[in-house]
TrEMBL record, chains A, B:
InterPro entries: Acyl_CoA_acyltransferase, GNAT_dom, GNPNAT1-like. It comes from Lentinula lateritia. This is Glucosamine 6-phosphate N-acetyltransferase. It catalyses: D-glucosamine 6-phosphate + acetyl-CoA = N-acetyl-D-glucosamine 6-phosphate + CoA + H(+). Coiled coil: none annotated.
Amino acid sequence: MSSKLTPDNDLELFFSADLIPDQVKAQLHPDVHLRPLASTDYHRGHLAVLSVLTVVSDPGESNWLVQYHSMRAASKTYYPIVIVSKQTDQIVGVGCVFIERKFLRGLGSVGHIEDIAVDKSQQGKKLGLRIIQTLTGISENSGCYKTILNCSDENIPFYEKCGYQKKENEMAKYAPERAQPSPRL
Amino acid sequence: MSSKLTPDNDLELFFSADLIPDQVKAQLHPDVHLRPLASTDYHRGHLAVLSVLTVVSDPGESNWLVQYHSMRAASKTYYPIVIVSKQTDQIVGVGCVFIERKFLRGLGSVGHIEDIAVDKSQQGKKLGLRIIQTLTGISENSGCYKTILNCSDENIPFYEKCGYQKKENEMAKYAPERAQPSPRL
C-alpha cells in the first residue's frame, strides 16, 4: 500500500507530538497515523469527520484558521488530535481534551474530553479506544487529578472498558435562538 | 446594618462587572453583592466556601495568585464569580463558567458551569439560583449555543427549575496516584 501521509515534520502542529503516549503509538492500527491537529487539516476532511456528531456547517478555511489560532492562544488549554489514513492522508478520527484549571483540590486541573468521532469506514480498528487512551494520557500527564466526558446511555459500556465510571448527570440548557449571534467569524 | 463591602472600583476584577446580567442584580438578596472574582479574594474566604464541595488544600496566597493570573491569561475562557456579604465583606457563594471553543456547530462555543458553592449560613436567599442565572447569562451573551453542567441525582430538580434538562451521563476516570504530581505551584 503506497502512503500519501504528510510527515509530521512538514506540518504546523497544534501542540508537540511528543505528548502522544508511546503506548498508544505502539498499539495503533498500521493503516493510520495519530497526531495533533495541524493548521492545514481543514483540507484533510476535519469537519467531515466531526459531522457524524452534530450540525457542522462549513465556515470556510480562513474562519477555521481563526478558530485554530484562537484556541491555540489559550496556552496549555486545548489538545485536539486527529487520526489520519496513511493511504489517503485524510482524517478518519478526531478528539479533543481541554484542561480546566481550578482553585480547589490544591489548584488542581480537570481534563474534559470532547467531540470524539471516527469515520464509519474505519470500524474494527479500535480507533475510538486509541483516541480515548491518548486524550486520557495527555490529561493525566498534564497533572489532571481526573478526566471526565459526557456520553449517552448506550455508550457507557464502551467508556467503562476505557477505565471510566459513571459519576453524575449532564444537565444542558440550549440558548434561545435570539441569544445566538452568528458564529463569530 | 453597617456595610464593610469593598466597592468594585477598589478591586482588580477577573473580568468586567458589566457582564453580570442586570436582571440578576435586580433580584439579588439585599444582604449580598455579586461580582467577578477579585485578585484579593484569597483574603475574603474564597477557598473556605469552595471547601463544601471537595478537598480544598490551602496553597497560600502567592500560589493562589499564580493560578488567578494563569486562568486570566487564557483570554475569554474563565468567568469566575463570587457573592459577598455586605456586612462582613466575606465571600458566601462562588461559581465559574468557562467557555469552550469548538470546530463544530459553525465554530460554536459551549459554556461549562463548574464549582457552584454557597455557604450554609446563607440558605433561603436563592443565591444558588442567582449564581446559575449569572453564569448562564454570561455563557449565552458570549454566544454559546448551549450551557452544560454536571450534578448528582438529588440536585436534578433544582437545575430543572433553573431551565436545565438532563441530557447525558458524566463519566469520570481518576488519575492513578503516581501520575499526580504535586500541584504546579
